[in-house]
## 1
Amino acid sequence: MRETISINDYYKNLLLKHLRLFLVILCLQSSWAEAQEHHFTNPQVRVQVTAETLNVSTTGYPNHKWEKVNPNRPSKQNFNFKIPRHPKIASRTTAVPSRGPIAVAVNGVVFFGPEDREGKIALENHGLDSCQGHPAPSGVYHYHCTPGCVHKDSPNQHSPVIGYAFDGFKIYGLQGERGLLPKDLDRCNGHTDKGRGYHYHTTENFPFVLGCYRGTPTLANYDRNQ
Ligand SMILES: [Zn+2]
Ligand SMILES: [Zn+2]
């Protein structure tokens, strides 16, 4: 009798253990499915969708080669960004912080603003590797301009989504309609078209990614220590 109970318990425990594992796998799969649905390309990026936000969890570690261009080394982070799902144009623009992440790319790597720690244009002041990124002293690998290893533009076509600004508006690459460089970008580096609504572009010249936020950025996303 005792043996029967213990065998039953054994199977019960086994079942529970597997059920738990199964649920974890199910959760991870659904958050990866959500991630893909929202343009993310890196299986290390997790996305949970709520009514108002995309909750993006990422290590921020590059999923492509990086080269030593400064004394720093990239390290894995524990970023959790809340990206507004229904961004709206705000009554006034918000300045992009001059330090730390301002947006997240579809591979989970972050964008920094155009200026680096000394307030100089990062592109001119510091070396960027061939993917247009480099690690900060904190180990946060980041892009300052169009990240060549995140996406490839097709000729004669609008660039795909390459990231999300912290105000929720999407960021596209260099190419506008019919593959031409957009000529109507505002000072935040964004414009509006019929299909996409308001969205940002990266540019070959200043500010390269975002000049300011046209919507309302989620303040909790800033890490002042970067
Ligand atoms: Zn930098
Ligand atoms: Zn556009």
## 2
Amino acid sequence: MATPTMDKVEAEAAASSDLITVTFRIRRFNPEISEHAVWEDFELEIDPKERVLDGLHKIKWDLDGTLTFRRSCAHGICGSDAMRINGKNRLACKTLIKDINPEKPITVEAIKGLTVLKDLVVDMEPFFQAYRDVMPFLITKGNEPTRERRQSAEDRERFDDTTKCILCAACTTSCPVFWNDGQYFGPAAIVNAHRFIFDSRDEAGEQRLEILNDKDGVWRCRTTFNCTDACPRGIEVTKAIQEVKRALITRRY
Ligand code: SF4
Ligand code: FES
């Protein structure tokens, strides 16, 4: 015998019984109103299986349309919604409410070390400038080959981890060296340099190593592992930085 399906009213009642009341404590900043940031609390009903991004949407759509934050894909791909949630850099779209102790207020603030423009939105330009500075594209000499550039599976594996970067800046903005001196290239730029330095098809490894041999380059890293902990893609960021340091010493890569 077929199992009777729940009617709409029952389904809604079941869904609403899953809701819990959560406080979002958000660090607000609006330079048109004040030069100081303030914490503001929002209380909302939410399913704990939803994500912090869903909570931010509910606040923006139902409670305060002025709340400002970036997001695009909502699925951990575009890297635009890195923020500091309960004191740790995370992607709002990959963070479930139930995983971050919703019994207490959930704090949400902008990532650190970059200028806050409004609420949770920072000026990403210094971050992207460091990325551009390491020349994150394949550089080769000589004539274009008539067929694709071949590479063995082992050679491809050498830099597989660092191809996963989505440029969310969670690593760079969790780094105490970057907080103290925004001139440091930062983990994300080094990860993206690593991706090409260790690519057997690329011929500009020496140039990239020299760029990172700068006073603001890899030697500023203090191996605190904050970057590795923060990376939502699970990239071994500190290991990649160590490999670039080793390549600088041995000139082997
Ligand atoms: S290395 Fe990880 S944390 Fe850093 S920018 Fe790339 S994806 Fe984000
Ligand atoms: S919105 Fe794209 S990674 Fe979160």
## 3
Amino acid sequence: MLTLPTTPPPETPDNSPKGAPQFPDGEIDQFLQRRVCARCYGDLQKAPAPERMWLVICPSCGDAWNFATLSRSYAEALGQIALEQASEVKHNLPDLFPNPHQGKSIAQVLRELGF
Ligand SMILES: [Zn+2]
């Protein structure tokens, strides 16, 4: 079983309500490689800010600062746990997830899939 890290992921450098965290040229790309959006787990993007700084935005959620970020590894661990839980639910509650191919031959399934 996968376990989550015991320490919470580090916060975005400046989450103060007074404004969005901004990053200089040398740091923004590293930040974008290490972090994902905490709402949708999607990749983040940079947007230009004044004085050669960069803002972080989520192209799906839109906000420039009204969201948190997670480390990519933490988000991947959450995704793995969700997959394991989904597998357990499927196994323990088979009536909720009937096999749509039950009783069909391999040839029938392949034909239905377009092969
Ligand atoms: Zn997002």
## 4
Amino acid sequence: MSESASSGAVDETAVGSYFVANYPPFSVWSADAATSVATPALQSPPSNAALGMYLHIPFCRKRCHFCYFRVYTEKNAAEVQSYLDVVAREWELYAQHPAIADRPLDFIYFGGGTPSFLSVRQLKALIGRLEGVTPWDTAQEITFECEPGTLTEPKLASIRELGVTRLSLGIENFDDKILEVNGRAHRSPEIFRAYDFARSIGFPQINIDLIAGMLGETHDNWKACIDKTIELSPDSVTIYQMELPFNTTISSDILKGTGGFSNNVANWETKRQWVAEAFEALENAGYTVGSAYTAVKNPAHTKFVYRDRLWQGADLIGLGVASFGHVSGVHVQNIDSWGGYAEAVRQGQLPINRAYRPTDEERLIRELVLQLKLGTIRPSYFQNKYGVNVRTQFSEAWTSLNNDGYLARADDDLVELSREGLLRVDGLLPRFFLPEHTNIRYT
Ligand SMILES: C[S@@+](CC[C@H](N)C(=O)[O-])C[C@H]1O[C@@H](n2cnc3c(N)ncnc32)[C@H](O)[C@@H]1O
Ligand code: SF4
């Protein structure tokens, strides 16, 4: 999972996971724990953590060659509707459990896949049914991920009316040739049309996703992408470094050696350099770098509640096929097949496929590594919550980061990564893992 583990001695972008989304690694979660641990946790009284809802909308117009998410591109309208019915039923089932019943929702996230693939009618029906169970007026943030080519003006207006506060546009790149080579369904005119209209109707927050190192990317084109991003002036910009987990089309092409793609993904050093330049340009334009992946125009106003709550151990119910969640101290993941997921829900069962109850030490490590992605952590937060001095408990890891030049500051108030450390943070986080979780499969 670490960068070096996935790419061998050289720095090329080889097949393997890089991004650390959770801890302990998903490979130690088990089917046994789904019944022996998750079920009793849901039957017990609620925790006092914040509660969020994630809805996985697994439909896309096309599968991008680099995508590693669970998505479907061939489902017809009836199948989409049946999926949405199952998702709504899943929430009704959760709401009958003591750990969830009557709890207010603090944040909601429509992810995918492509939530904006849904029609206005489908969206209104889904949200109406979910709100019939739990009102959404307590939610501080409702995020909605969009692929620009799926957005019409009436659809955007409805998304706004439905209460979405944070619109996230998967732009990835502004160059039509690069979009095509990477299998994206949208082209640049759709970006500008969607963005301008979204801005004009007053979404409180618009985020743009970019990927550094798409197939065919060049330095000049990347600089042009950053210039265009700054011209659009979104509230926040998220920049991912292209990775190639096993389940992408590019990865299987590489593994089979079929040579289906004539362009390569840039190596890690180049991608870090491109993100460093993007961050510098964004900072010169008034943005603040708020994490390894994000720059924010106005940090006082622009928050990312979903990310921050999650990285501080909130409860999250992940609805939909293959979704991840965390409830009452237990990690859970849903069944990852279309039929198996729907069948379980239709039988009145929660479709949890694997689960894991982290120990206190593992929960501490989870929060520590996730919060390190912000670039700074506060030792007092961990002292108050876990009674642990993270500076002494993880002294070996801090020393190694310091020796490698990845720490900018380390005292009792704040530990801060250097920019070089921040740009490669996912490759550094395994240094904090327990020995039994290093050098094992991540997913
Ligand atoms: C679920 S998608 C966002 C919504 C919509 N599906 C879209 O792509 O426009 C989440 C984001 O993950 C990022 N992403 C997907 N595959 C990636 C990969 N292999 N490496 C880095 N980032 C990736 C893209 O930036 C994408 O916008
Ligand atoms: S990157 Fe987005 S649009 Fe492309 S296949 Fe993945 S989820 Fe769908």
